[in-house]
Amino acid sequence: MEIATLLSVGLSNGCLYGLVGLGLVLVYSSQGIPNFAHGELFMAGAFLAYTAIVLLGLPYFLSFLIAVVGIGLMGMLLEWLAIRPISLHRSLGRASSEVAIVLATVGLAIVLKGLARIPWGDSVRNLPTAFTTQTVTIGGVAIATQRLLIVAVTLVLTVAISVFFARAPLGKKMRATAQNPTGAKLIGIHTSNIYSATWALAAACGAIAGVLAAPLIFLHPDMGTRMLLKGFAAACLGGFGSVTGVLLGGVLMGVVEIFAGRYIATSMMDIFAPIIIILVLLFWPQGLFGARRAARV
Amino acid sequence: MRTLLQNNLVWLFFAGTVALSFTTDAYSQYLMNLVLVYVVIGQGLNLILGFAGMFAFAHGAFMGIGAYVSALLTAKLGVSLLVAMPAAGVAAAIVGALIGFPALRVSGLYLAMVTLGFSEIVQWGIKHWKSVTGGPDGVSVPAPVLFGHRFYGDYPTFYIVVVVALAMTLLAQAIIRSKLGRAFVAIRDSEIAAQCSGIKVARTKVLAFAISAFYAGIGGSLFSLTQSYITPENFGFYQTTLHFCIVIVGGAASLAGPIIGSIILTWLPEVLRNAQALQEIGYGLMLILFVIFAPRGIAGFLIDKGILPRERFSLRRPSLPGRSRPAPQEG
Questions:
Q1: Which of residues 288-307 of B touch A (CB under 8 A)?
Q2: Of A89, A100, A281, the CB nearest to B106
Q3: Averaged pLDDT for residues B206-224
């Protein structure tokens, strides 16, 4: 019984890590950089939903939509303001412009954190859950409805994004740009627009994860940093390349973490992500699920 | 006259701090001590980031190791600072070398993640190894006793900090001008070309990590002296970001860069009224703006204007069309 409960918690946490990791993978595969500001997009999504639900009194799912679209637009804006000017510095050479972009994302991360701290830094806040019924009992195991929602949304989103990359013209253009930016330009793809779209999609994924996770963890400007590490760990396990890989990586991470936290020591929960990042990058740089390449994004 | 000034900028800076220390009140003296602490750490980060071109994201953790080793040795074992401070540097350097080995296997931006993960682990370790480190409560740092004299307060601490900072800056200058420094630059500009010229790339990279961590360790030890109390929170992601701002704003791959950066980024919080939110926004915006508009920092600008002397191994001016250096091979 306890194992089933732990499994449900681990699975839903894992889905969240997968969602955060997905946003990281999207930016990584298009621009080759780890986006250190992604945790703050997650945080911003949660706070935008909080503003809509609690402060403006809008219905939950409308607020969810506002948060996702709003943060998607914000991701696009951030790319335009801080990332694009650097990628235009051709003279820097590829390697140093990548370092510059990573530094810019670090800068974005702390700016966003500081901006959120002005109105919301004083205390922790709570976001209401999606449904008024808190738990349902399935086969004798009480499962929080919020966790079921997380798993459902993650599965739908993974399928949708896989289909998007396989079928949609924009998805195909994104894949082309990721594979070979010069080649993509030659066949008439506006790669700058593609980067904007990638950032919007990645930020929207982060916002979805943020709104879903907020009722389970508390809202605070620092909430994104820990999630960023967990998302990195999921993305590393997934080999930084495939949509299903990062989801599997996240789920593995969530399940192992919850069992280690329960049966070894609770403090292990916080240290698991960095250990996984180091071990995977050192010994399996392709990731555990990287070889499958279900959808190279 | 001008060249004479230009060639002795390091001495001028340190002479200036000593002269100023006669005019300061206790609080400005504390800030000046902090500037010198960050000069040491900035020089260390600059060696690895600016000169060797490696993305180490763990200097907050190295600094924490140094601070805790020195504070615990002096507080709990009663060891003299003359032993504890080098021990802090060596401890950080050993850990740095251990982190340097992964640098041989993962390149570029993966290294950023590995080192970030490592610094999380260090912070976690300090927080949870309660029997030794005191956990989240931190450790109180005793005033050091050297040659029978007790260095208590901001003014006496200044004399320790300024001597160490001067020594470490001169050491950095010596490293940059040595064969090793040229090997760092060669690896930064092209790893393959460096290997072809007979540089042992692996050994040099590990050495870069160890030296850089040594600087951060010594800096951490000095930092613990300026604070009467250290906690794990002092050495997190925020601290590492501050070090990056110091090097980038001041000017990477320049000896003057970390000095300029430390002055600006230590005084900036005072302008920003010590509010964490405003500090974060200020640091972040500076980092973004400098990375976009002035990747070589203030030192690079001053060098172009002829105010600072041209340094032999600083980053080349990025605006020469068609003469950018080729991207190093990935992998």
A1: 288, 291-292, 295
A2: A281
A3: 93
A202, pLDDT greater than 90: yes
- Confirm or reject contact between B77 and chain A (CB < 8 A): no
More confident residue, B321 or A18: A18
- Is the four-CA dihedral B270, B276, B281, B284 of positive or negative sign? positive
Residue pair B143/A290 in contact (Cβ under 8 Å)? The answer is: no
* CB nearest A103 (choices: B118, B120, B287): B287
How many angstroms separate the Cα of B74 from the Cα of each of A216, B71, B83, B90, B106? 43, 5, 9, 16, 37
Put simply, whether B121 touches A (Cβ < 8 Å) is yes
> Among positive and negative, which fits the CA dihedral A143, A144, A150, A152?
positive
The answer to whether the CB of A161 falls within 8 A of the CB of A19 is no
Q: What is the pLDDT of residue B45?
A: 93
Tell me which of A34 and B213 has the higher pLDDT.
Answer: B213
Reported confidence tier of residue B10, pLDDT bands at 50, 70, 90: confident
Neighbours of A45 (CB within 10 A): 30
Which of A32, A93, A117 has its CB closest to that of B325? A93
CA-nearest residue to A32 within chain B is B109
Quick check: B70 pLDDT over 70? yes
Phi, psi of A101 (to 5 degrees): -65, -40
Residue B215's nearest CA partner among B139, B164, B250, B259 is B164
Q: From A125, A17, A30, select the one nearest A75 (Cα to Cα).
A: A30
DSSP assignment of A172-198 equals HHHHHHHH-HHHHHHTT--HHHHHHHH
Taking an 8 Å cut-off on Cβ atoms, the answer to whether A110 and B284 are in contact is yes
Residue B65 CA to residue B52 CA, distance in Å, equals: 23
Supply B235's token pair. Answer: 């050495």
The residue of B288, B314, B317, B319 whose CB has the most chain A CBs within 10 angstroms, and thus the best one to mutate to test that interface, is B288
The whole-number average pLDDT for the span A20-29 is: 89
d(CA B228, CA A13): 40
Task: Name which of B98, B101, B120 to mutate to probe chain A: the one with the most chain A Cβ atoms within 10 A of its Cβ.
Answer: B120
Evaluate if residue A294 carries a pLDDT over 70. no
Q: Which of A113, A271, A278 sits opposite B280 (nearest CB)?
A: A113
User: Chains A, B: CB contacts under 8 A, how many?
Assistant: 140
Kindly report, residue by residue over B287-308, the tens digit of the pLDDT: 898 888 888 888 878 887 777 7
Tokens representing residue A240 in the block: 């930084």
What does the pLDDT look like over A222-245, one tens digit per residue? 888 888 989 988 988 887 778 888
- As for the ipTM of the complex, it is 0.84
Check: CB of residue A141 under 8 Å from CB of residue A5.
yes
B325 touches chain A (CB under 8 A): yes
User: What single-letter DSSP state applies at residue A53?
Assistant: I
Beta-carbon separation of B326 and A93 below 8 A: yes
Average pLDDT over residues B70-76: 87
| A46-50, A289-293, B233-237, range with the lowest pLDDT | A289-293
Q: For A148, list phi and psi in degrees, rounded to 5.
A: -65, -40
Enter the pTM of the model.
0.86
